[in-house]
Design brief:
The protein has 393 residues and is mainly β. 0% of the residues lie in helices and 45% in strands. The chain has no helices and 38 strands. It has strands at residues 4-7, 18-20, 23-25, 28-29, 42-45, 50-57, 60-61, 68-71, 76-83, 86-87, 94-97, 103-110, 113-114, 125-128, 133-140, 143-144, 151-154, 159-166, 169-170, 176-179, 184-191, 194-195, 208-211, 215-225, 228-231, 235-238, 241-245, 248-250, 254-259, 263-266, 269-273, 276-278, 291-299, 314-318, 324-328, 336-339, 381-384, 387-390. The strands form seven sheets. A ten-stranded parallel sheet has the order 1-5-8-11-14-17-20-23-26-30, with no helix packed on it. A six-stranded parallel barrel has the order 24-27-31-33-32-28. Strands 4-7-10-13-16 form a five-stranded parallel sheet, with no helix packed on it.
Length: 393
C-alpha cells in the first residue's frame, strides 16, 4: 500500500532521516483500513524526515494523499516533484492533516488529480488543521472534482511565498479553495486557472474561492490574469475579510455570467489597497463588489462603484489606464505585468495606506516619490535612441 512508511509507533523518522535522489512510484493504497487507504507513495504518522531530490509519480490512494500523506508530521521537502498522482477524495499530490506543518522549497505539483468520490478536493495539496510553509512552489495542470484544483485549505493558515498557480481547474476554486483559514500569499501568480461549475455554490472563484468565518486571506504582490469562473473570474469572497495589497488583477479574468469578472463578494468584505483591477471581462460588472473598503487603487469601474457600503471609505480611487505590459518574465520567480511609460499607476500609491516594502520581484519600493500601484514597481527611465524605455532588471 505504501512505497515509503514512516510511523511513530515504529520509532518514526525525524529530520536526521534523509531520503535523497529517489523516484517513488507505483504505490497503491487501497487496503481495508483507514491507514491502508492513504499515502500511496509515502505515509507519515508522527514522522518528520528530510526529503531531497525526489520524484513522486503515478501513486494512488483510495482516500487521501496519493503521493504523500502526513498526519502529525512536518517533513522538510527540498527539490521535489509530484506528478500524475491521484486520490479519490483529497490531496492527489499531498494531504496534510492533524497538525502537519511541512516546509516545502522548490517543489512542483503537476497533473495530479483528486476525483472519484462525491467530494474531492485539493488535487495538488490538501490541508486540514495544518499549516504548511511554501517557498518557490508551482501548481500546474492539477484537477479536482469538487474544489481546489491546486490547493484546498481547511482551518489551515498556510504561508505561500513565490508560488505559481497555472492551468489548474475544479468545479469551484480553480486554483485555491479556502475554508476557515487565513493564509498569507506573497509574490504569487494566478495564471489561467478555471472554476468550471455552473450554478449556486459552484463555478465560483477562478483563482480563489474563500469561504471563512474569521479574517481571511492576505494577498500581497499578487498577479491574477486569464482566470475564469461563473462568478468572480479571479476571486470570490464569502463571509470573510480578504485583503488585496499591491496586487494586479488584470488581463481578462472573466466571469461567464458577467458578474464580477475580476472579484466578487457575497456576505464578505474585500479590503483593496494600492491595487490595480482593470481590463477584465468582455463586458458587464468588472468588480461585482458588495462590502468593500479601498485606498489608492486603479479600478476600471471605480466610478460606478465609488460609493463604498457598510460604513467603509474609498479614497484616491482612479480609473486611469495603468498601461500594463503583457505577462512576461521581468525578473523574480513569477512572471509579472510591467507598468509601461504613461501608466497612471506610477508614483500614485501609498495615499491613506501603506505600500508593500518590495514588489512581486522583490524590487524595493518606492523607486520614485511614491510607490507604484499594483504588484510591479517600475524602475526609472533612461534615454534609448530618441525615446524613453523602461530600465528593468
Amino acid at each position: 500500500w505504501h512505497v515509503v512508511h514512516g510511523v511513530g509507533e515504529y520509532g518514526g523518522m525525524d529530520s536526521d532521516a534523509v531520503l535523497d535522489g529517489f523516484t517513488i512510484e507505483g504505490g497503491y493504497a487501497d487496503g481495508g483500513t483507514s491507514e491502508a487507504k492513504r499515502g500511496g507513495g509515502m505515509y507519515n504518522l508522527g514522522s518528520s524526515p528530510t526529503l531531497m531530490n525526489l520524484v513522486f509519480r503515478n501513486n494512488h490512494a483510495e482516500t487521501s494523499g496519493g503521493g504523500m500523506y502526513n498526519s502529525g508530521s512536518s517533513p522538510t521537502l527540498i527539490n521535489l516533484a509530484f506528478t500524475n498522482n491521484h486520490a479519490n477524495t483529497n490531496g492527489g499530490g499531498m494531504s496534510n492533516e492533524a497538525g502537519s506543518n511541512p516546509n516545502l522549497t522548490n517543489v512542483a505539483f503537476t497533473s495530479n488529480t483528486a476525483s472519484g468520490s462525491s467530494i474531492s478536493m485539493g488535487a495538488g495539496m490538501y490541508s486540514k488543521d495544518s499549516s504548511a510553509v511554501l517557498n518557490y512552489v508551482t501548481f500546474s495542470m492539477n484537477i479536482a472534482g469538487t474544489a481546489g484544483g491546486g490547493m484546498h485549505l481547511d482551518a489551515s493558515d498556510t504561508n505561500l511565498t513565490n508560488v505559481l498557480f497555472s492551468n489548474n481547474s475544479s468545479i469551484a476554486g480553480g486554483a485555491m479553495n479556502i475554508i476557515s483559514s487565513s493564509p498569507s500569499l506573497t509574490n504569487v501568480l494566478f495564471d489561467s486557472n478555471h472554476a468550471t461549475g455552473v450554478g449556486a455554490s459552484s463555478g465560483y472563484g477562478g483563482a480563489m474561492f474563500a469561504v471563512v468565518s474569521r479574517p481571511g486571506p492576505l494577498l500581497t504582490n499578487v498577479t491574477a490574469t486569464g482566470n475564469t469562473a461563473d462568478k468572480g473570474g479571479a476571486i470570490y469572497v464569502s463571509n470573510s475579510t480578504t485583503t488585496l495589497k499591491n496586487s494586479t488583477i488584470a488581463g481578462m479574468n472573466t466571469a461567464r455570467t458577467d458578474d464580477g469578472h475580476a472579484v466578487f463578494t457575497n456576505s464578505g468584505t474585500l479590503v483593496i489597497e494600492n491595487t490595480i483591477v482593470y481590463a477584465n471581462g468582455p463586458a458587464g460588472d468588472e468588480t461585482g463588489i458588495g462590502q468593500f473598503s479601498a485606498s489608492a487603487n486603479i479600478m476600471k469601474d471605480s466610478i460606478t462603484h465609488s460609493g463604498c457600503v457598510g460604513g467603509f471609505a474609498c479614497t484616491n480611487m482612479s480609473d486611469a489606464d495603468p498601461v500594463l505590459g503583457s505577462l512576461a518574465d521581468n525578473g523574480g520567480f513569477t512572471r509579472t505585468m510591467a507598468l509601461l511609460n504613461g501608466s497612471g499607476a506610477i508614483d500614485t500609491g501609498g495615499i491613506n495606506t501603506t505600500c508593500a516594502p518590495v514588489d512581486q520581484r522583490d524590487v524595493l519600493r518606492p523607486q520614485g516619490p511614491r510607490c507604484d500601484i499594483g504588484a510591479y514597481e517600475k524602475i526609472g527611465d533612461f534615454i534609448f535612441g530618441n525615446s524613453f524605455e523602461g530600465l528593468e532588471p
